[in-house]
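tool_log.txt
---
The assistant was asked to compare two proteins side by side. It first ran the structure predictor on the initial sequence, then on the second. Raw inputs and outputs are pasted verbatim so the downstream comparison step can read them without reformatting.
(1)
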Amino acid sequence: MCIYERNTKEKIDDIYFEIINKLRCIKFIYDRVFKGKHKQLKKNIDLKDNHKNKRCFVIGNGPSINKQDLTLLKDEIVFMVNRAFLDSRYEIIKPKYHVIVDPKLVTGEWSISFLDEIAKKNPDVTFLLNSGWYNLDILKPYKEKYNIYWIDGSLTITPMFFNKRIDLTKRTYSNAVVEHGITAAIYMGCDVINIMGVDGNGLCYSLLGRTDSHSYGHNPEDLTMSFQTIIRSLNSMSNSLRKWHHLFEYCSKNEIKLNNLTKSGILKINNLSFDEYIKEK
């Protein structure tokens, strides 16, 4: 795999992000020791090496997966994310894990009933949810109803984390929701991680007013974004591409095979054909 060559500005950005990471870690330790917070993360030790030396699939919601037969994954270790339950194949695949970390779930922009809809279609699902929501009243009924693990991936991925371990019992490194699935898979011991549906161009589709930005159609809120939200999203999209390169490099350095089985899109790293990969394996 080609090493991502950073320019001077990107190196400065990474130093800045790493300083923020250090401050977040200090706050995490202070809150845990002196305020008794983050206790919910201790339960994550149950996930450690659950799938040691196994392969898994972490699936984004890019429209490219509409061109792939996801039903072939029904007996695999699968992570799906966000509104994936709207995909008609969800009930066939029945992913083992469903990841949601976007604040929209608790701000009211998305309905909290998403959790009920997911569990109805996939009763044995294990939820991986944003640890920051643990004490929210809106989540209290769900703690007893469903199998939930709380994850804190609020540290930004930079090259400085290449020699560190992913530890879900602490604040750890991640980025957006698919990356949270990947870091969870790493913690669970998977040594071959396949990503699909990471097209990387959904925001561009939304800016053009297209209604096919996701496999299930589109997110209505994406078509009414404010100018400020668009600017933030474009900046986030740019940073995300660099972080993807860092994540692939991290896996390479730690003897984890991270394959990109996405059929189309802008992320061109470790690309393999899904159809050929499934046939071979």
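(2)
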Amino acid sequence: MSWKIFTKFFWVTVGVAITALGLDLFLVPNKIAAGGTSGIATILHHMTGVPVGLTMLALDVPLYALGIYRLGLGFGLRSLYGSVSLALLVDLFSLYVPVPTRDPLLAGLFGGVLVGLGLGLVFRFRGTTGGTDLAAAILRTYTGMNIGMLLFVIDGMVVVAAGIVFQSWELALYALITIFVTTRVIDIVQEGISYAKAFFIISDHTGIIADRILHDLGRGATAFTGRGLFTGNHREVILTVVGRSEVTRLKEMVYEIDPRAFIMVADVREVLGEGFKEYGRGKGM
């Protein structure tokens, strides 16, 4: 096994373990069924006492069979490691970990953070845990619907079912909070926290501004031609990316040169290349 493959499986395993802890510490004991097969398993666990991990695995087996039939052998097997290890760790950790809180809001928030962090690591290193992701991919072959929309529908049905079974719409609302937190944390883990800003600068003095960016800030810049739809005039637009500490300095620099300049600033989640970070550093291969 190559080092890259080992690294990938190591971080997928870490992600699965964190996800299992989020379920066992916060979500399952507090009846928060935040979508997915884990949500269904949480409902069935509190109804019948069947272990959550075993239920998750039982739900995934027919999905794998159908997934291999509809999507090919590779797709189904790709999910197998993450799904099996998650099911095993959920049932293993449930025997030993304490329940730190019975407050459903705290449980929903912290459970969402842990599950999001764990799944984010799994996805970042190109793993998957099967479950409703696999179900959505299968349904897409029948319906043609967008996978994101299918996931929303499936998770919504699980949340509604939890509200009915537990006779508490408050728990269903807490589950929605958990889903929101989970998805946001997954995005942060995969894309990173915004640490840079992209500037689009439109000015009659782009040459001077570009020179100051290159020599005073030491940043690169790209100029491309745009046409104002109101005036019909062609003007150069400068695109540059700077660190957060350089934002105010660049604004002052531009308006010192051209008080009438138009600036648009946007968050940048990740920047690869000279002056920032190299591709592959800290990412799954």
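---
observation on (2): The CA atoms of residues 33 and 162 lie 6 Å apart. The chain has two domains: 3-191, 196-268.
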